[in-house]
């Protein structure tokens, strides 16, 4: 509650504390309002019809039977839909194509009609009566299909340094293997829902989004109405894991239905629709080649990947980019290709790209360690880079060595006998495995606003969302600390486009961006209070600047004499003001762009490029990193695999709340266990239909699959960010799948290069 | 296209049924489509949205409520089959004086959720598990909570919360 304002960064008692989640009471009583919980007067229900082919055209679509069904208010297909605009481009690429634009089918499960009725049951029933006829074409479904269109280097981030062939030729040991990862589906537990209500050309939407401003922009463009007339609300979202980063067709269709019937409409996706309509982690086929000296120094890394994208949509997901900055290796090539298929569009899913790319790289390093006869932790320590490997710029901060060393210590790595199949516990084979993990730094521009009211309480707000990460709680802690208030005197507003602009809750970037903006707004607010009393003869703070004061429990006091001071409320009252408000914003560090552009420049210009980039004297923001250690048990007769222990040591920069940050890591580890052992979206090779689109068939980790976990944070506040955070949303997942695969090899002697590691792969 | 028209009271259509059930101790009378599940009746007819829908297929546990004191997934129960029965939802768990149930409090202390969407179902299952005497060990808690999916992965904290209430042997831990 006391903070000195002359410090460049917030520091003190509240930040870091494992405060209980402030939205906890709402969530445990069922009172937190998720988008699907909204019920508006006169509201009707929409249900969607999906294509049953993956490629071709609709030859006939009869609306009649559905229109005649009880309670039906409208049936909309491409034949009677108005022409809709396409949403704006974002960092993730083009917006999804507008729904119902023509008779073409580009993937199985494409929305071909929306049915609106008085009740949800009537809408669902009538949707079944829409049965289009098709001219089906032979879909392109396989990455290896020669008909498929290939996009080389789709994002211009393929990297190169040194001379790969020379590196491989000079190596004492070389290694090469192919790894595959399957399609995974985000499956947030909250079914995505949109409740849309128009009043003339103004639109209010409750939506399961991770990025309200993006949804607002997409809706405005779709319907050709001004952005300021569109309000998107998402104060609570039932998880996202990346699937809420785009304004998907169903969002537009819900608003379209509401516009047509001139009543509010609720649309809730079904679980099977969640597999085809809101993105998923794309499958990959990856090739890794390594060359190293006898003592383990990497001389060459080549990492290539093929992954799918939809026919006419985008997905920003470099699989191999992370490899270019993972280790100090002088000769490297990373290369991505995207293959256009008749599939629902992939999209970000927790640790997009890195989840898959890191599996291949960290598996390959484990294999190399056996070829070298070297401990896998040592192999990684030998190759840890003190600078950004592609540009040579210094890291902002990177405690990767501590991650390895403390992880090994906490886990008891020294007890591992290196031979595969050498450790047993009764009938169970025991295996130890580990992996390193990094996640590229990401930050976007953000704004926030802070007010203090006559009663001395603060209201801090921004449009960013809390999808379960703890944003409400950590931002309250940060604001309370910066303003010198108790947390119960600070109210936080989130998830509303009527509030200042915020970027997506994604890329592990929101905490840093929003934290910077909240901090700036709060500092400015205190500053404005001081300005108010600067020439105020009645104020004991007269003439004080930020560096002369400290804050305590709603009171500004002089650092040289804390008895002299006054409260925010007192100042407002004396000046006859109801409240004082200040805005703050934050921008990504300069090093972000320099490191990325610099990487591209060095890729193309080699050493000369490197010299030019270093001349900028920039610092490369390191992003979060960590080391994962796993113990597994395998029953060799039954192929049963159990994960029995996991240690994660993470450098996440400054941790704003020990409790919620830890939950971010453990939760992501659970996702990593699912990726390693259970999750695989299966597409029928003939029809393109997803064959396991239910929770009964698509398995995710359940409570009994999860062991005790040890999570430990190391590192220091990261100078690349004004509040020192690195973002901890994805780093917990990265490295879990390879650590498990590596432990499985250690236990059984069987190398699984293809996820998930199911029983059949161990028999 | 049809506009918004207030519907006057009318006789039940052939696919509708009138029924009375007790929700959190209060008798509620409603007319529902025979196809309406208990889950949708709670949410859409009675406006009690604390109970969540995560799959509508009986596979995630988000919709868990107590029906005559036993946990059920309310998406697999037809409302029409609940005539005269007792339903307890997350909204009915707090004690009469408004104090949250010990399991609710433990979930907050142990951070047993993130997005919070699975939480009402988890808590209803946990309360039931304790009543069934299944909180004896972590292994047992994990096993008997495995019908409740949490995509945010709050499982270790959920176990810690339930363990704490089980250990405390709290007399208030029932419903
Ligand atoms: S909604 Fe009932 S079990 Fe998933
Ligand atoms: S808290 Fe999000 S699904 Fe459990």
List the helices and strands and how they pair.
The complex is a heterodimer of chains A (763) and B (175).
Chain A: E1 2-4, H1 24-28, E2 44-50, E3 56-60, H2 64-67, E4 72-77, E5 104-105, E6 111-117, H3 120-127, E7 133-136, E8 150-152, E9 159-161, H4 164-170, E10 173-181, E11 193-199, E12 202-207, H5 212-223, E13 230-233, H6 249-261, E14 265-268, H7 271-274, E15 284-292, E16 298-310, E17 331-341, H8 354-372, H9 376-383, H10 400-411, E18 424-425, E19 428-438, E20 446-453, E21 458-461, H11 471-483, E22 490-493, H12 510-533, E23 549-552, E24 555-558, E25 565-567, H13 568-574, E26 579-586, H14 590-614, E27 625-635, E28 640-651, H15 658-677, E29 709-714, H16 736-748
Parallel strand pairs in A: 2-14, 12-13, 16-17, 21-22, 28-29
Antiparallel strand pairs in A: 1-23, 2-6, 3-5, 3-7, 4-6, 8-17, 9-17, 10-15, 11-12, 11-14, 15-16, 18-19, 19-27, 20-21, 20-26, 23-24, 24-25, 27-28
Helix pairs in contact in A: 5-6, 8-16, 11-12, 15-16
Chain B: E1 16-23, E2 26-33, H1 38-45, E3 64-67, E4 70-73, E5 86-88, H2 102-109, H3 119-131, H4 138-144, H5 155-168
Parallel strand pairs in B: 1-5
Antiparallel strand pairs in B: 1-2, 3-4, 3-5
Helix pairs in contact in B: 2-5
One FE2/S2 (inorganic) cluster (FES) binds at residues 53-56, 58-63, 73, 75 of chain B.
């Amino acid at each position: 509650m006391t903070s000195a304002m002359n410090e460049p960064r917030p520091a003190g008692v509240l930040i870091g504390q494992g405060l209980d989640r402030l939205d906890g009471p709402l969530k445990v009583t069922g009172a937190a309002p998720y988008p699907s919980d909204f019920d508006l007067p006169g509201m009707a229900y929409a249900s969607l019809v999906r294509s049953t082919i993956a490629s071709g055209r609709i030859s006939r679509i009869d609306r009649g039977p559905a229109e005649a069904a009880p309670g039906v208010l409208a049936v909309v297909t491409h034949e009677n839909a108005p022409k809709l605009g396409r949403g704006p481009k974002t960092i993730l690429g083009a917006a999804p194509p507008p729904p119902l634009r023509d008779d073409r089918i580009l993937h199985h499960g494409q929305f071909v009609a929306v049915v609106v009725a008085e009740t949800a049951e009537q809408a669902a029933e009538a949707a079944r009566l829409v049965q289009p006829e098709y001219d089906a074409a032979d879909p392109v479904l396989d990455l290896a299909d020669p008909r498929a269109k290939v996009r080389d280097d789709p994002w211009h981030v393929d990297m190169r340094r040194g001379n790969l062939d020379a590196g491989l030729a000079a190596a004492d040991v070389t290694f090469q293997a192919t790894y595959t990862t399957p399609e995974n589906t985000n499956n947030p537990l909250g079914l995505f829902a949109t409740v849309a209500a128009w009043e003339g050309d103004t639109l209010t939407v409750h939506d399961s989004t991770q990025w309200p401003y993006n949804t607002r922009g997409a809706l405005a463009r779709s319907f050709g109405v001004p952005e300021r007339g569109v309000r998107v609300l998402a104060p609570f979202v039932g998880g996202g894991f990346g699937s809420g980063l785009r304004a998907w067709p169903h969002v537009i269709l819900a608003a379209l239905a509401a516009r047509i019937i001139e009543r509010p409409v609720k649309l809730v996706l079904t679980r099977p629709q969640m597999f085809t309509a809101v993105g998923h982690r794309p499958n990959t086929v990856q090739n890794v080649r390594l060359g190293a000296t006898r003592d383990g120094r990497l001389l060459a890394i080549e990492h290539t990947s093929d992954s799918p994208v939809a026919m006419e949509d985008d997905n920003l997901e470099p699989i191999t980019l992370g490899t270019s900055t993972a280790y100090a290796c002088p000769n490297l090539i990373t290369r991505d290709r995207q293959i256009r298929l008749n599939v629902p569009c992939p999209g970000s899913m927790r640790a997009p790209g890195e989840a898959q790319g890191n599996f291949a790289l960290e598996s390959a390093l484990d294999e190399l360690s056996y070829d070298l006869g070297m401990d896998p932790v040592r192999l990684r320590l030998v190759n840890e880079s003190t600078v950004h490997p592609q540009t040579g710029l210094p890291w902002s901060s990177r405690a990767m060595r501590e991650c390895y060393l403390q992880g090994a210590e906490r886990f008891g790595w020294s007890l591992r006998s290196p031979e595969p199949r050498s450790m047993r516990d009764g009938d169970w084979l025991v295996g130890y495995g580990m992996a390193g993990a990094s996640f590229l730094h990401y930050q976007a521009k953000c704004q926030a606003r802070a007010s203090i009211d006559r009663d001395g309480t603060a209201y801090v707000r921004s449009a960013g969302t809390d999808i379960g990460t703890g944003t409400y709680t950590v931002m309250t802690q940060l604001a309370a600390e910066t303003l010198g208030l108790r947390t119960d005197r600070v109210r936080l507003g989130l998830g509303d486009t009527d509030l200042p602009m915020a970027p997506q809750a994604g890329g592990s970037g929101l905490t840093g961006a929003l934290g910077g903006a909240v901090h700036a707004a709060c500092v400015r607010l205190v500053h404005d209070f001081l300005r108010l009393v600067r020439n105020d003869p009645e104020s004991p703070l007269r003439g004080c600047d930020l560096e002369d004061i400290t804050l305590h429990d709603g009171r500004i006091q002089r650092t040289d004499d804390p008895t002299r001071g006054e409260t925010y409320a007192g100042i407002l009252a004396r000046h006859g003001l109801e409240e004082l408000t200040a805005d703050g914003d934050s921008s990504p560090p300069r090093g972000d762009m320099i490191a990325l552009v610099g990487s591209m420049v060095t890729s193309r210009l080699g050493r000369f490029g490197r010299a030019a980039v270093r001349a900028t004297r920039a610092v490369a923001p390191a992003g979060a990193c960590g080391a994962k250690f796993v113990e597994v048990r395998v029953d060799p007769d039954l192929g049963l695999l159990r994960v029995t222990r996991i240690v994660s040591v993470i450098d996440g920069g400054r941790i704003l709340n020990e409790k919620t940050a830890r939950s971010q890591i453990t939760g992501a580890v659970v996702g990593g266990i699912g990726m390693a052992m259970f999750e695989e979206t299966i597409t029928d090779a003939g029809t393109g239909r997803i064959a396991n689109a239910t929770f009964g068939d698509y398995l995710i980790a359940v409570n009994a699959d999860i062991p005790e976990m040890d999570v430990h944070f190391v590192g220091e506040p990261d100078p690349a960010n004004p509040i020192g955070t690195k973002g901890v949303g994805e780093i917990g997942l990265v490295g879990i799948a390879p650590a498990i695969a590596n432990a499985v090899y250690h236990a059984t002697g069987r190398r699984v290069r293809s996820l998930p590691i199911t029983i059949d792969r161990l028999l | 296209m049809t506009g918004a028209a207030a519907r006057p009271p009318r006789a039940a259509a052939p696919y509708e049924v009138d029924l009375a059930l007790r929700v959190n101790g209060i008798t509620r009378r409603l007319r529902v489509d025979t196809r309406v599940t208990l889950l949708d009746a709670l949410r859409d007819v009675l406006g009690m949205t604390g109970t969540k829908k995560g799959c509508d297929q009986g596979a995630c546990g988000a919709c868990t409520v107590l029906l005559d004191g036993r946990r059920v997934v309310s998406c697999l129960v037809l409302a029409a089959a609940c005539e005269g029965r007792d339903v307890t939802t997350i909204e009915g768990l707090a004690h009469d004086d408004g104090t949250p149930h010990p399991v609710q409090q433990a979930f907050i202390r142990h951070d047993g959720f993130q997005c919070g969407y699975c939480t009402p179902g988890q808590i209803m299952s946990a309360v039931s598990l304790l009543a069934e005497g299944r909180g004896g060990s972590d292994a047992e808690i994990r096993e008997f909570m495995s019908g409740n999916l949490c995509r945010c992965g709050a499982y270790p904290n959920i176990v810690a919360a339930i363990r704490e209430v089980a250990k405390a042997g709290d007399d208030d831990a029932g419903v």
